[in-house]
Description:
By secondary structure, this protein is an alpha/beta fold. It contains nine helices and 14 strands. It folds into two domains: 115 residues, Alpha-Beta Plaits (2-Layer Sandwich), CATH 3.30.70; 152 residues, Vaccinia Virus protein VP39 (Rossmann fold), CATH 3.40.50.150. It has a seven-stranded mixed sheet with strand order 10-9-8-11-12-14-13, with helices on both faces. A four-stranded antiparallel sheet has the order 2-3-1-4. A three-stranded mixed sheet has the order 5-6-7, covered by helices on one side. β5 and β6 form a beta hairpin.
Amino acid sequence: MKWTEVTVSTSNEAVEAVSNILMESGASGVKIDDALDYQNLKPDRYGEIIDLATIPHITEGAKISAYYPETVFVPEIIPTIKQRVAKLAEFGLNPQPAEVSMADLSDENWATAWKKYYHPVRVTRYLTIVPSWESYQPTQPGELVLKLDPGMAFGTGTHPTTKLSLQGLETVINGGEHLIDVGTGSGILSIAAKAMGVGEVEAYDLDEVAVKSAQANLDLNPVAADIKVAANDLLKGIQTQADIIVANILAEIIIPLVPQAKANLKRGGYFITSGIIDDKFQTVLATIKTAGFQIAQHTQMGDWHSIVAYLPTEED
């Protein structure tokens, strides 16, 4: 089968939104090349896993490549993609340079397009993300290995917003908790939570493509076998009383989620949010505080913020 590759050059902050636009326009998968991911491969306190000089990489911004089968007449949808990408500025996201290009691609090339870029990456002190096609052995006691196929619809799991979410989970998980993952995407947060000892996990995403992608990644990790993943609009209609709710989504979506999270959290439960760009942080923070949450932790990586809040008990 022949495929068409559509590539959008954009900013780091618009990666998730552009990916969604491409998937909603009929792409069968996307590959995300984010300069921030390559920066994360440089030596840090966890040690370097691969030599950055040995792989091709971009040095700024991001490129999202989407793959369309020959049954889709791509020239017809390009104008809509360009329009929707440009319109992201109205939602507070910078889509520039917002350049859109297309190229023919063979089935074989599409199947392997992303593999040369992705290698095992240590994302926190204890968590290492390993592509599904690579073998990897832990290098230190307590290291947890998470298998992830970045070729389904999402990136490698090393974006700052994901790393901040994972770090937040590490600070609150004691073991045996009931957790809800809102906007699960690749499913990486749900998989990591189970690996860290959470008892029950419910994972939701609005997009059916994301649900399928998450399920494929769950299937790669035996520890995640009992995770429930389904399509849902945030927490509408969900009646669960959870110990932890985590949401790595855009700030504009976090705000309407706040009252839903409060209704679905036990007293003393934790609400972890990430995906908050710098100029939206104060608005999200104020919304969370106004809802009655107390702030346990605020972390930042570049222009991205994460908040760990908790619902006070009567004794607090």
